[in-house]
Design a protein that fits this description.
The chain is of the alpha+beta class. The chain has 8 helices and 10 strands. Helix content is 29%, strand content 19%.
């Protein structure tokens, strides 16, 4: 069992990892592309805020990589796109805001039908299948979870739960590890990312095998990597 941990925003991530973990990566949650006309079918008035439910996202949505959005919106790096997202959602203190980048992103979204921000606070449903493959890659069958909001923890067989069921284990904060504690992944509050940790010193190969978009942590990378 591995309890959910709180990381200092400004300090390097690697020294803060639980004992035994040696490498980490910050996984970027994909944008959500819904089927054409979805928003129009849902909107009841021009001022209504529309965002797909988890069920709609799984059934009708497709993941869109940050690289694809960067290419079309003239945002030049993961750092710029992260700043644009967090400025738009009010997640940054005033001195860190980049309204110019937020304007670039939102101008692109306005002309792109049915494209939505990535999941924030909780791990994107689009990447959970890939994360399960990582957690079970060393013959693990049982996974353990911990969430601090309601103080719940427990275990389940990897094949017994869908991504939607795993996403519903906690409304926000959640950490899941395999029975051997070779890997763990943890949602990060107030962000569009998930942290994955490994006992191996080179997590980059693992990330590449499951084709996830990520920032690989070096000895200086912190949760404020985008500043």
């Amino acid at each position: 069992m591995l309890d959910y941990i709180r990381l200092d925003w400004d300090l390097p991530i690697l020294p803060q990892l639980p004992r035994g973990f040696k490498s980490a990566a910050i996984l970027l949650h994909p944008f959500v592309q819904m089927s054409l006309g979805w928003e129009k079918s849902k909107r009841e008035n021009p001022y209504q805020h529309i965002y797909p439910s988890d069920e709609e996202m799984i059934d009708l949505g497709e993941p869109i990589l940050w690289k694809e959005v960067m290419a079309e919106s003239n945002l030049k790096s993961y750092e710029e796109l992260s700043l644009a997202l967090q400025t738009s959602t009010g997640a940054l203190r005033y001195k860190y805001e980049r309204k110019d980048l937020a304007t670039l992103l939102n101008s692109y979204l306005e002309i792109t039908p049915d494209l939505y921000y990535p999941d924030s606070d909780c791990t994107s449903l689009f990447i959970i299948d890939s994360l399960l493959k990582v957690l079970c890659s060393k013959n693990a069958n049982t996974l353990y979870f911990s969430e601090p909001i309601y103080g719940m923890n427990g275990s389940f067989k990897a094949q017994d739960k869908s991504p939607l069921e795993i996403g519903n284990l906690s409304p926000n904060d959640l950490i899941i590890t395999d029975e051997n504690m070779d890997f763990a992944f943890m949602s990060l509050y107030d962000s569009f990312t998930t942290l994955i940790m490994a006992k191996d010193t080179n997590i980059e190969n693992t990330i590449r095998l499951v084709n996830l978009e990520a920032v690989i942590c070096d000895k200086e990378t912190s949760l404020s990597w985008f500043l």
